[in-house]
Amino acid sequence: MQRNWELIRKILLKLEEQPEASGYLDSGSIKGFPPETVAYHYSLLHQAGLIRAKDTSTNEGFDMYAQSLTWKGHEFLDDIRNDTTWNRIKGQITEKGLSLTFDTIKAAAAVLIGQLLS
Fold it and tell me: Where exactly does CATH 1.10.10.10 map onto the chain?
């Protein structure tokens, strides 16, 4: 399964919208994506230290639910929250022939923010 940055961004935004710290998102919470794909991305985000998540897999299959953003998750989301900024970051990375990775997104966001602050 491929990593989907649009889904990752949706997950981070939706987690931030949770009204309670004790809330959670199950794998069916992100509309337009199969629950298995969402669960896989919860796992990726948990491994990257961007969210806290729990494995709820059973003998019937893999499943996860997302609990909350971590500090690192909040910081990353702050870099990519704005639609215009997000589109510019993606555009700069692909224009240079690079892959969308966590490191390239963070680097492009830092450059863009630096340009905006100058």
Answer: 5-70
- Assess contact for 93 and 77: CB atoms under 8 A: no
Along the 118 residues of the chain, how does pLDDT read in single tens digits?
899 999 999 999 999 998 877 778 999 999 999 999 999 999 999 999 999 999 999 988 899 999 999 999 999 999 999 999 999 999 999 999 999 999 999 999 999 888 888 8
Give how far Cα 3 sits from Cα of 8, 9, 22, Å.
Answer: 8, 11, 27
pTM of the model: 0.91
* Domain topology for 5-70: Arc Repressor Mutant, subunit A (1.10.10)
